[in-house]
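**User:** Once you have settled down, spend some time on the protein underneath, comparing sequence with structure tokens, and judge whether sequence predicts the tokens.
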Amino acid sequence: MNLLDKFKLKKEEKPPEVPVTWIETSETLSHQYQFDAHGRLSVTVIDNSRPAFHKVVDSFLNKFFPSGYPYSVNEGYLRYTQFRALQHFSSAALSVLSTQSLLFAAGLRPTPAQATVVSWILKDGMEHVGKLISSNLGALMDSEPKRWRIVADILYDLGTGLEVLSPLCPHLFLEMAGLGNFAKGMAIVAARATRLPIYSSFAREGNLSDLFAKGEAISTLFNVVGIGAGIQLASTVCSSIQGKMVVGPLLAGLHIYSVTEEMRAAPVNTLNPQRTAMIVAEFVKSGKISSPADLRYHEDLLFPHRLIEDAGNVKVGRPVHKVIKPSQLQELKETFPNEKFLLCNSGNQWTDMVLEDNATGEDALKGWLVAAYASKSDLTEAYDKMNEVFSPFLSELKAKGWHTDRFLDGAGSRFAWS
């Protein structure tokens, strides 16, 4: 073999394939995934060799502080939280004393321990458990505040229903009262957590505080009116359990209907999976973009995760290792260079989209546009088409009042290239 043949042989040799790796973060743990040259997937837990104390602290921060703390909050948040904890501690202690005083005034002579048990089990205990469970769903509430506001009122009515029916089962009084307070505890957290994004959707020129104050004033006024009506009903048609069983469901139905109409009226202008899909579907179909006020009455408030065919039937948030095959990963990286999303359709009825950790609403919009165009062409042509239309599309979207700096995908999984 001469020198020229050796040179040609060396040139034809392919460089060794580099294993593809990425990192997925869930809760407080990070996992590194790697496809080797033979397509085998290996998983390694990262940062799990910390001392137990550090794990406990991280778990506490994850449960009780905002995601990304301390970098995701403004200065003074820790001091505010410390005094808020002290406030609730002193309030809970005072409630035990007030319970003891009320029982004493009724002619009983309870011990301090008995007052504590009564206060904790009948009122505070199960309600606090419900609050703690509901507090872990904050990311989902950010993504779908309207849905969770409706769910909150359904839970509250279920809890009230159990309390109304408790005289029918006096031997199960503690169980029914406990479950009722549990449902109400979850409802209270969900209602409070979704209040701010709902009020924010109506705010203009920084008047959020005024909106909030006026909304609370209206709530207080009609709470007083409702209490008066309830007293009147309780002394007449609802003086018996049969009357309560007739009027109760009617009032609950009116309650749920009212809150559903409230949520339909709220023009939320943040991007979540449903609103993004609806925007893209309308743009691809007609070239138009709806404002938040126009889109609000078309949202599915109870089942928001339905697939929209004109938007590419996109599902977002599934883990990378469950979505993309080893043979596809490198190809997809090359198909979408410098993008913060990956798309994959493995013969399913939908297209999976996974986002990087720092992906914004604009990145999600890009991925959705590609998926929508790909339903009528191949992936490369769809990507080119997206790049052609994206700048004017984004400009009009912002002009309509949409916020594209964040994409609220709830508890969906994201990834980061290592």
Remarks:
- Strands lie at 20-26, 29-35, 41-46, 270-271, 314-316, 341-344, 351-356, 403-407, 414-417.
- The mean pLDDT is 79.
